[in-house]
Every structure is written in structure tokens, then in C-alpha cells.
Amino acid sequence: MRLGILTGGGDCPGTNAVIRAVVRRSVKEYGSEVVGFLEGFRGVMENMVMPLTMHSTGGLIHRGGTILRTSRINPFKMERGPERIKENMDKHRLDALIVVGGEDTVQVANQLYNEHKLNLVCVPKTIDNDINATDVTFGFDTAVNIVAEALDRLHTTAESHNRVLVCEVIGRNAGWIACYGGIAGGADFILVPEKPINLAAVINSIKQRHARGRDFSIVVVAEGAKFDDESANPEREVDAHGHIKLGGLGEILAKHIGKETGFETRSTTLGHIQRGGSPTAFDRVLATRYGVLAADLVHQKKYGTMVALHGNTLVDVPISDAVNSLKMLDMDVYKVAEVFFG
Ligand code: F6P
């Protein structure tokens, strides 16, 4: 067979491990050839390709980012987008395309499969861990570890200066990274998009903690969390996929906390640090398992599917099961985090 692979949406540690696994399995087990498209769907529309061999994809297991680069292009908003994708797949005599991406990329793949009958298999990829139909996406574990390590560092400096330190983390609409990272890093309050911010509750909790003799506090806030008082939420710009551009909430929250408690309060935004660098061992293994299964599914012609993890078992699910809504934080885990507030 001849197959293509692309990586779309925000980059994510473990993506190169997927590419390496797809190529290794396809070439070694099936004698197939693999072509990489550059910069997500832009590469398929504009015919930007890179041949991928076992040699060129060797030594990638530990490397962050994506060697194919990425973009947030939506082909359905471009002139003859889907048609150009089909033409270029034909030009390269491709039997199928493996699409590695997050919420938007998987949504586009689902539409291309249903409306344009393209032979596609998806691999879910996002540090946000918010894709439906899979328990975990690779990249999430790495991001959580980065948050935990940052909180360890913030603890020692907060404690030395008797400060409240607010740490803003990413994860867009879902609080997975904030909640898991916050629990792992011993946060004293965690704010997630799934639960509106009640400023009075945050302030009381910090005051209570300081009243019982602690002179510092660590607050984790997810970039997509919102105040219950609508007027306190900042105005936001919108991107190409209709998503609001986030960032800056930590600073706003720190100002409120400082003003209301009288404690010196500062904020740190982790931002893209959570997305860069080497994947953890967990993510390397998960990404590799996903890549091998995606290659197998293509060779079995099981198109319209997405690889997924259910428990510790790798399965395939229809792409359509993964789209239209996000997998929000499991609030039972948040309840565990709450035990340590205040
Ligand atoms: O979807 C992954 C993600 O890292 C989100 O957590 C974050 O809101 C967004 O991407 C940032 O996107 P960009 O890198 O395009 O600013």
C-alpha cells in the first residue's frame, strides 16, 4: 500500500513517536510506503510532501513537536479544500491517509470521510485530553508532569516570600491538566472551566488556610475557567476554527486575590511550556501503541476509525464517536482535589 500521514492542530509531545511507529509498522510488517504531508491539511491541499522511511524516522521516540510541522487550517473554509485533498492523494497514489490531530482536525477528518469518502484513520492527539471516545490522549501525561514540576518550584519560592502564587495552565475548555497537575503538585485551590469561579469561595479558602498558620498558597487556574459573575470575564478574540483566544486569566485572578486578602499575590503563566519538549515514558508508549494500531487499521482497510484507549486496552472506534462534543473533566477527580483546598 501507499499511505500518507499528517499532523494537525496544536503540537503535542509524542507526535513524532506516532509517526515513527506508523512508518516502522507499515514498512517492516506490510512492505508499504509512507508519505508525510507537511503542516497538517495545508500540506495535502498544497502538495507539500516528505517521503518517510525507517531511516528518516529513526531516533524520534524522545523528540517533542512534530517533524511534519502543523497548522490549524480548516480545508472546509478554503477554496476547493476537500477536492484539492482528494486530487493530491490521487497524485501520490495513496490508498489511505492517517490523520493525527485534536478536536478540530478529527472533526475535519470525520467530514472528509463522510462527505468525500476518503480512506482515513485518525489518531487522537492533544495535551488537553478532551477528545471523546478515548480515555486518554498522548501528550496529556507530559503536560501534567510539567505542571507538577512547576508547582514544586512555585512552592519553594511562595513559601520563602509568604506569597500567594497563581499558576495559569492550558487545556482550553477542559480542566484535565489543571486538575491532575494541581493534585500532583499539591495545589491549595484549583479552578477549572467545568465549574464557574466563585471568587468569594477562593478568597475564603485562602484566608482560612493562612488563619491556620500557613503563610503561602498555590492556586492553579485553567486558562478557560470563567467567573460566575459574567461581567468579570475578559473580552476574547476568536480564531479560524471559531475558538476564543485564551490567556491572561491568572493575572486577573491574582489581582482580585491580592486586593481582597491583602496577601502579596503574583501569577505565572505556563503556556506553551506545557506543550514543548520530550514526551514522558507513558506518552511514548501510548503514542507508539496508537501508531502501530493505526497502521494495522489502514492495512485492514478499517477506514473511518480512530484508535483509542479504553482502560489499558487499545481499540478502534468510529471517528464519529469522537466528534461534536468534548470529553470534560471527571468531576469525581475534582472532588478529590477539593479535599486539599483551604
Ligand atoms: O489544544 C491544545 C492547546 O494547547 C490548548 O490547550 C490551548 O488553548 C491552545 O492549544 C493554544 O493554541 P495556540 O498554540 O494555537 O495558541
How would you sum up this structure, described in words?
The structure is a single chain. With 342 residues, this protein is α/β, with parallel strands linked by helices. It is built from 10 helices and 11 strands. It has helices at residues 15-30, 41-45, 81-91, 103-116, 140-161, 176-184, 199-211, 249-261, 281-299, 331-338, and strands spanning 2-7, 33-37, 49-52, 96-101, 120-124, 164-169, 189-191, 217-222, 265-269, 305-310, 313-318. The strands form 2 sheets. It has a 7-stranded mixed β-sheet, sandwiched between helices. Strand 10 and strand 11 (313-318) form a beta hairpin. The model has no long low-confidence stretch (mean pLDDT 97). The structure holds 6-O-phosphono-beta-D-fructofuranose. Residues 10, 102, 126-128, 170-172, 223, 246, 275 line the site of 6-O-phosphono-beta-D-fructofuranose.
Order of helices and strands: EHEHEHEHEHEHEHEHEHEEH
Radius of gyration (Å): 22 Å
Kindly, what is the distance between the CA atoms of the first and last residues, rounded to a whole number of angstroms? 59 Å
Q: What percentage of amino acids are in beta strands?
A: 15-25%
